[in-house]
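User: Structure with zinc ion, tokens only please.
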Amino acid sequence: MSGQQTAAPDPYFPANGDSRYRVHRYELTLDYRPGPNRLAGTARLSAIAGRAPLTEFQLNLAEFKIGRVLVNGRSPHYTHRGGKLRVRPAKPLPAGAAFTVEVHWAGNPKPVRSPWGGLGWEELTDGALVASQPVGAPSWYPCNDRPSDKASYQISITTPSAYTVVAGGRLLTRTAKASTTTWVYEQSAPTSSYLVGLSIGRYQTVLLGAPGLEGVPQAAHLPAHLLSQFSRDFARQPAMMQLFEELFGPYPFGEYTVVVADEELDVPVEAQGLSLFGANHVDGVRGSERLIAHELAHQWFGNSVSIADWRHIWLNEGLAKYAEWLWSEHAGGRTAQELAAGAHRQLASMPLDLRLSDPGRKLMFDDRLYERGGLAVHAIRCALGDVAFFRMLRDWATVHRNGVVTTAAFTAHVTRYAAQPLDELFSAWLHETPLPPLPTPAATAQPPLPEVPRVPARPGYPPRNGGSAGLGGSSA
Ligand SMILES: [Zn+2]
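Assistant:
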């Protein structure tokens, strides 16, 4: 299910994506050689034309050599320039018609340049990593690159047997031949193109949580030399999973996988069913625990509930930021109120020119968007009271599971849980730039900040007390 389609091109990235059709499945067959950084691939897309007949359509794909393109098994006319593969089928595709596109390509993948550094396929010292948010996906495969066009994926990758291939989704098969191994992953949940993550490296695999325990399977892949620090830093992830399932509803995907690359990353990055961390996020003293919570929360907010276009990015980041605060509060660290006060102080000393509901492309990953986003969610919690707030949050993730949303959809949803109109709150926090006063829970309406609902203890989980997840640093 792809949710609603927005007709216009993305206001921040008009060159990416094509709203005249949508893709519901990608089947990618890739061969990758880490030494020469050589990628050869075949993509088979199952797509549906929109409301008008399709005389031509476009895919985003970086500079590769194109071997062949087929539409419904026949050769179309096509051009490939400036990261766009424009395809004109031999005969126009009727409105609403299902069709297939096959693309063969090969070359040396490299990141897409952006104000936030390289995006997409990145060759590492020994392996590769894909982190595409927001527009890096065309660095390695042809796609309709817009967050609202969600599709299922099957990805088959053949690479030398010394490497482990990690993708989001379920590992269907792993087949070793003479010197190479083919890994086949299936992600059946609707997935935005930027959230197709991948990592190829020399990894050890560990399972998180106690063996035999029910719940979401959680595996980690990391370099052997980081094992001991990792086991301390990520020890509480199963407890986070339990808390977030309690607060946001069932985990949206079949499994959750984390990768720690043997390389520093500016920020960790979320992908569908997968999060990618750098070696610098593992220190043996839980220094990045808030980021572990942040990336996990994106599985609900951003990955399962996706934004219609990039103007709404605060919905992903504000809710993931707030999940950091909820985890801290739950784990006996600073409360959400204390963390909100810290964020408010920080924002008060910075320029107030960021509008949460439409920050502009330049500021879409600005630290202020994260902090103000967390504060806006906190303001809503204070206005609704805890009972209504947590019901609202869980319903939001449930109703829009696998769907596509906007800020307007969110405010309409929140309003249903409020005893009084919230228009002023929404204007002040979401649509205007001055910093409203620090939100505090209404003293008369409810007792001051009751605890986040506790998850019943299950045997085998690490204790929840001690440690705190604080502010600081940037987050992805
Ligand atoms: Zn984030």
